[in-house]
User: Fold this.
Amino acid sequence: MHDAVRQLRFALLQAAAAPETIDALEPGPEWTALRVAPDEALWLGPAGAQLRPELETAAQELEPGAFVGDVTDGWNGVVLSGPERRELLARLSPLSLPEPAGGFAFVQGDVLGISGKLVVLPEATVVLWPATFSAYVGACMADVGAVAGAAELDWADCAPRTTSEGTLR
Assistant:
C-alpha cells in the first residue's frame, strides 16, 4: 500500500467574497480552482507557490472586505494512486468518486468523519483535510492500511493540464 499513498506537497489559497468577485480573480496558471461554495474558493498549487500581492489588491478593489490569503499551513494531504485507490478511498470516506470531467472533479464532505476535500484526477485522488486533524487522520489511515510511504508528490506533478474555468462552478 505504501506506493499507493504518498504525502502531497502543495500550496493552498482561499478566497471568501461575493461570487462575482471570486469569478473575476485570476491567481495564475499554476493554480487549480476548487469552488467550495458560491462565496468561497480554494486554489491548489505547487509547493512553494506564492500568493501574488496583485491578487489581494484586485479582490479589495472589487469588494472591500474580501479575503484572499495563503492557508497552506492549515491543510495536509495525500495522493491515492494505483489500481487500489478506489478501495482505499472507500475505507476512508463514504463519498462517491465522480468521473473527472475537464481534467478533474472536486468533492467535499465526510473523510474519516471530518470535513475533507477530494480532488479526483484520471489516475489519482488527492485527499485534503484540516491540519488540526493530522494525528487523528494518520491513526485512522494506519488502521485501514492506508499508510503513506516515504515518497512525496508535488501538486505540480499531478495537477490537471486543462483549464479549470467553468469546471467547478
